Amino acid sequence: MELTLSKDDRKFFEEVxxxxxxxxxxxxxxxxxMGYPLEQTETxxxxxxxxxxxxxxxxxxxxxxxxxWTMTRRHLFDAAMRKANAPEVQGFGFGMLGPALIKYGTxxxxxxxxxxxxxxxxxxxxxxxxxxxxxxxxxLRTRAVSDGDDYLITGSKIWTSAAEHADWIFALVRTDTxxxxxxxxxxxxxxxxxxxxxxEPLIAFNGKRLWNQVFFDNVRVPKSNxxxxxxxxxxxxxxxxxxxxxxxxxxxxxxxxxxxxLYITRKELSTGVPAxxxxxxxxxxxxxRLQMLDATALRLLSHFDEGGAVGAEPSMxxxxxxxxxQDMDRLMFEAIGYYGLPLDSVSRGGRPVREDYMDMVVSxxxxxxxxxxxxxTTEVQYNIIxxxxxxx
Length: 392
Ligand SMILES: Cc1cc2nc3c(=O)[nH]c(=O)nc-3n(C[C@H](O)[C@H](O)[C@H](O)COP(=O)(O)OP(=O)(O)OC[C@H]3O[C@@H](n4cnc5c(N)ncnc54)[C@H](O)[C@@H]3O)c2cc1C
What we know:
Structural class: alpha+beta
Radius of gyration: 22 Å
Helix content: 40-55%
Shape: globular
Bound molecules: flavin-adenine dinucleotide
Strand content: 5-15%
Strand order of the largest sheet: 1-4-5-8
Order of helices and strands: HHHHHHEEEEEEEEHHHHHHH
């Protein structure tokens, strides 16, 4: 594989840079850079701009409104967007449900939902985990009982990110209690405004509403909202991410974080905070790790683009990428020293001490701990690697 950028790639970067210069409002990118929460309207507006340019859904085929790009080009695009502090489009619709609808949806389901995702007219959340079913997802118990042309849903989903804003949820439900666990699951699209759906907040230890618990009490859902065949939801859930599972390296996110570290450490040093003697060495190590991760991700993606098979590499990239985020966070946290301590008052409506970025640093440190768990825990990734690579 070629590690230097081709002429085409360089031209592409210029196009992306011109688009960002014309369309990305500096006040919006400043909010993203500082980790301030964005209004839903801001994310929607940005998604519409991307959609107008044809870039909202890099992972979808052109016939469905996507770009048809290779994985390598998508990786480059993501890094350029994040480096410029552009807002992110909603992953649940674009990265998860969209590819599943394209692969398993009926024409009616595709026509109804894909344009709405592309234009950010509706937002989605993911209803997989339950109080007794996380890593062991096949143990899920939310029941869907057949009632004529509908299902009646009863049960609850937990750790549901963004459910407080979501218009729809895609959920795994049990349609057969007698089959072996994986064989009795179906995949449903549920309107969050249906009678019987309630959403309760779950507050993380940075004081923010990171998740929700969603309750279903005899919620009526038309069978036409089922994706794929009854009892075949497990297969869909497993394939849901499709190629998306290759884009787990968090290279773009880490590049953005590195920029933040440089900005913050320079600013802190300029205020007379004594420099940690080890700072330069630690910064260099993080940067080296990032470059290695980037090269490894590009190697894997171009191997895949050339038709190569992929095994446990995504698990390795997930481990390396999320750990790097956490180590970047730690260095930033140390750079702001004890000014991060009053965060607790910020989460209760107070103001950050001294600089606005104090809240972003501490919140990031806490929030990104969740990367060890979200998308498959570290131990589960180790299991996959042990099985696929070591044959254990
Ligand atoms: C930031 C964040 C966002 C999330 N968003 C969503 C969402 O939007 N929708 C959704 O459905 N879920 C979401 N989740 C939930 C996430 O998918 C689950 O937390 C995850 O699957 C782990 O399940 P659990 O929390 O029940 O932990 P458990 O599965 O109970 O695991 C507990 C501990 O046991 C370990 N363990 C479990 N099984 C094994 C094993 N076989 N071998 C070795 N160790 C094992 C785990 O590694 C972990 O350390 C989110 C989680 C986080 C952190």
